[in-house]
Amino acid sequence: MGVTAFTTEEPFDLQGFMDRFREAEDDSTGTIVMHHGKVKRPGKVVRDFSRVLLEPVLPSPEKDMQQIGQNILKKYGLNQVFIVHRIGEVHARDDVLFVAVSAVTRDIAFSGCADIVDAIKEEKILRLVEVP
């Protein structure tokens, strides 16, 4: 198990992500928690945007997401962390962030998942540009 983190310009295959995640699980997992982030309207800057560009701010967003995942995995003693973030052009209702974590208990899994999502947003790994 451990941490898997990557970016993609392709639409998400949520079932494929979950299958890949579950295949790596073992008997110690009591709970799997996931976050599925989507592009929503109205926009923060351009209320009725036509598209959104997700651009890397740092040279290696995968490395930064991997580090966030490792830190939270160690902090909570999680079994597994899986993080995928879209980059490039996306539109309203598109999937943009998928995080799945597993742990022995649900309280640890919920806390770990929330901390990963918060850390990714706080780190400003990607710049979100709303295009009119």
Fold and architecture overview:
With 132 residues, the chain is of the alpha+beta class. The protein has one domain: Molybdopterin biosynthesis MoaE subunit (Aldehyde Oxidoreductase, domain 3, Alpha-Beta Complex). It is 33% helix and 35% strand. The protein has 3 helices and 7 strands; from the N terminus they run βαββαβββαβ. It has helices spanning 14-23, 61-76, 106-123, and strands at 2-8, 31-38, 51-56, 80-86, 88-90, 95-103, 126-131. The chain has a 4-stranded mixed beta sheet, with helices on both faces. α2 runs antiparallel to α3 (106-123). It starts with a strand and ends with a strand. The model has no long low-confidence stretch (mean pLDDT 96).
Q: How would you sum up the major sheet?
A: 4 strands, mixed
Return the CATH topology.
Answer: Aldehyde Oxidoreductase, domain 3
| CATH architecture field | Alpha-Beta Complex
Mean pLDDT: 96
Task: Report the span from N to C terminus.
Answer: 42 Å
- Rounded to the nearest angstrom, the radius of gyration is 15 Å
Determine the number of helices (DSSP H or I, runs of at least 4 residues).
3
Q: Name the helicity range.
A: 25-40%
Number of DSSP strand runs: 7
Topology:
Elements: E1 2-8, H1 14-23, E2 31-38, E3 51-56, H2 61-76, E4 80-86, E5 88-90, E6 95-103, H3 106-123, E7 126-131
Parallel strand pairs: 1-4
Antiparallel strand pairs: 2-6, 3-5, 3-7, 4-6
Helix pairs in contact: 2-3
Defining traits:
132 residues, alpha+beta, Aldehyde Oxidoreductase, domain 3, 4-stranded mixed sheet, 7 strands, 35% strand, elongated
